[in-house]
């Protein structure tokens, strides 16, 4: 069979898991998170320029598969991501993802990449970026309830961007806490493993909740949250899943990414549809206030939005351009005559047995 060499237009830069790990280890986890946060903040500040929709979700008994698209005048990006809480019991990741970044002008992909690691990094970068605006000044201690795959990224992001020094850990699975404790101590943080969620929040100025089970749950009770706390609630990501008692919401100033999505998937699905929330992009542009006083309870009702993935893809495209972190993948058909796709197929098969 004749083998036709692909043209340059057939190639799309691809960042594999191995190369993503190499990039992050070469640059440094906290440096990558800090650089990602700059890209996310820049894109949030031009929020009205984006063509936005809530993610498209396909729910099943076992979990959810989602597509997260967004575009501006120049680029289009999307992420494929799943969420299956049962997966760890079967040897699979709870969350996996890949993404594509493309030119709006001709529709050609500019980058194809793993996004399991990149999502963990961008989620942490977004949380800590929001913490810059909403957390108490000079906060040094964060409680981390839920010590799974996202835990270490969150702790390192809040150290890099907000200056935390102490992390108090709790998970219903002691093995998860033991894993996170070892990893974060190695990274140089002061870590306290706690036996209960109540113990974890003692003395914390920031509380991060990040659990996996897709159900209405009460990870934080109202009496666990005192004045002046910032809550980074990142576990909510689908209808029917919450982590906070409703009374916490009514005491808090609530900040969200994209209200049409958050009202369906976030903590505020427990509230009336007209309950007031503040959009984070308006805080970042200075159009509205973030934290206003030391007694205020601020709540980032985070569900993850496609612009954050767009920013991460844009960052990765810039970071890998002209490097060996991306390898060329023969992904696109490119006939000599753009109208003759069939002819390309025939020529490739010339000489093959009938």
Automatic annotation (TrEMBL):
<dbReference type="InterPro" id="IPR023401">
    <property type="entry name" value="ODC_N"/>
</dbReference>
<dbReference type="Pfam" id="PF02423">
    <property type="entry name" value="OCD_Mu_crystall"/>
</dbReference>
<dbReference type="InterPro" id="IPR003462">
    <property type="entry name" value="ODC_Mu_crystall"/>
</dbReference>
<dbReference type="InterPro" id="IPR036291">
    <property type="entry name" value="NAD(P)-bd_dom_sf"/>
</dbReference>
<comment type="similarity">
    <text>Belongs to the ornithine cyclodeaminase/mu-crystallin family.</text>
</comment>
<protein>
    <submittedName>
        <fullName>Ornithine cyclodeaminase</fullName>
    </submittedName>
</protein>
